[in-house]
């Protein structure tokens, strides 16, 4: 399915082979071939309208239906309780880093932050800029963020506790969400959103830029408890308030229509896989293929994350012989794999194996790793 693919080239007017490789990029990242194919097939004429989905008004009936259906699908797929609103926003998770303290911090109150790496720290920086009082309730900084702090003791009375559920750069992931005491969690799920079922009991807000695990870049999904709106401040401009998006069903201004449409297709694909429980089981199986190779050869492959905190989305490791890293990467290109270079904060290698990465891709990488070891071990 993912190797060579025969199709009719629109300009060359003949059958050509299109090559799909295994793309391990951290984001934007690989998307299901079925989703891309469906989008391609209806791109010029959406449902007999004679227009592309990206050419039509966001106020028209056709787009409205796409919009509403995607939200309803998300609520069903992720089992989102009634107390939450679903908001479609832009500006990526990075904009949320600022909007959260702006809207959720109370005057005279205190926020909590769990620091598990670069993205957590960027969220903390925005709270600092806004002059919000906060406490770092836990951190994994002492060991280059190779673990998830546990147990986490959260002091009472915090406005919210911000955390990153999956640390894209370091390859660590919260297996279960921590208990925030009498507060609620605000969770950056950018890199594991819809990769597994979500326990909403301790969550006040969850958000994700979609380009890691759930769609193209340009759409940020926010799932927020309505009780937070009463904290909004008079001086906050409309576009920076969550309630503005809630009141107008995220159609206050022009939304990213193409991204919303693509997100709907991804949700439909998740349903077809059997929902989040099935997707989670598939992700476990995929990650195991690669971690098994690392575990079997600990003198050659050095996993970055502590075993019990390893991410099912981003596998990070170094070569004991670091000078071979470039060779390793060169060989992956020849084997139709891409995107495996590690982030500069960890170095080495990283395989991002989100929902849309097929089992065959993880198997190909595991086989390549065994082969590379045989030649260089
Ligand atoms: C990629 C990423 C971000 C940044 O997302 P943008 O959409 O580029 O702002 C934030 N948090 C996590 C966990 C990420 O993986």
UniProtKB/TrEMBL annotation:
Domain Aminotransferase class V: 21-365
Protein known as: Phosphoserine aminotransferase
Modified residues (N6-(pyridoxal phosphate)lysine): 212
Organism classification: Bacteria, Pseudomonadati, Spirochaetota, Spirochaetia, Leptospirales
Cofactor: pyridoxal 5'-phosphate
Chain sites annotated for binding pyridoxal 5'-phosphate: 93-94, 119, 168, 188, 211, 253-254
Molecular function, one GO term: O-phospho-L-serine:2-oxoglutarate aminotransferase activity
Encoding gene per record: serC
Native organism: Leptonema illini DSM 21528
Ligand binding (L-glutamate): 59
């Amino acid at each position: 399915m993912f190797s060579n693919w025969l199709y009719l080239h629109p300009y060359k007017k003949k059958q050509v082979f299109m090559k799909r490789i295994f793309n391990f990029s951290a984001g934007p990242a690989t998307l299901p071939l079925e989703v891309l194919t469906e989008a391609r097939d209806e791109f010029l004429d959406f449902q007999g309208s004679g227009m592309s989905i990206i050419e039509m008004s966001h106020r028209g009936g056709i787009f409205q239906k796409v919009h509403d259906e995607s939200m309803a699908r998300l609520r069903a797929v992720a089992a989102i309780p009634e107390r939450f609103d679903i908001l479609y926003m832009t500006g990526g998770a990075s904009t949320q880093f600022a909007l959260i303290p702006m809207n959720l911090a109370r005057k005279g109150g205190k926020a909590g932050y769990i620091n598990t790496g670069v993205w957590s720290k960027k969220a903390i920086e925005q709270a600092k800029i806004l002059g919000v009082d906060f406490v770092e309730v836990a951190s994994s900084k002492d060991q280059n963020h190779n673990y998830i702090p546990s147990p986490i003791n959260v002091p009472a009375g915090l406005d919210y506790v911000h955390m990153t559920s999956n640390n894209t750069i370091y390859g660590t992931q919260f297996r279960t969400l921590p208990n925030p005491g009498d507060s609620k969690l605000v969770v950056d799920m950018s890199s594991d959103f819809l990769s597994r079922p979500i326990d909403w009991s301790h969550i006040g807000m969850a958000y994700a830029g979609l380009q890691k695990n759930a769609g193209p870049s340009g759409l940020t999904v926010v799932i927020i408890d309505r009780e937070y709106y009463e904290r909004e401040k008079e001086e906050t401009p409309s576009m920076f308030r969550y309630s503005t998006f809630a009141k107008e069903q995220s159609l206050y201004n022009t939304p990213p229509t193409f991204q919303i449409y693509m997100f709907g297709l991804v949700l439909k694909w998740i349903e077809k896989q059997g929902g989040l429980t099935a997707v989670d089981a598939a992700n476990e199986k995929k990650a195991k293929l690669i971690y098994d190779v690392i575990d079997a050869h600990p003198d050659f492959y050095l996993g970055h994350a502590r075993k019990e905190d390893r991410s099912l989305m981003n596998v990070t490791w170094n070569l004991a012989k670091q000078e071979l890293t470039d060779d390793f990467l060169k060989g992956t290109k020849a084997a139709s794999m891409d995107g495996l270079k590690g982030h500069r904060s960890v170095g080495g290698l990283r395989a991002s194996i989100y929902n849309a990465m097929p089992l065959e891709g993880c198997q190909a990488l595991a086989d390549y790793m065994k082969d590379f070891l045989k030649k260089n071990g």
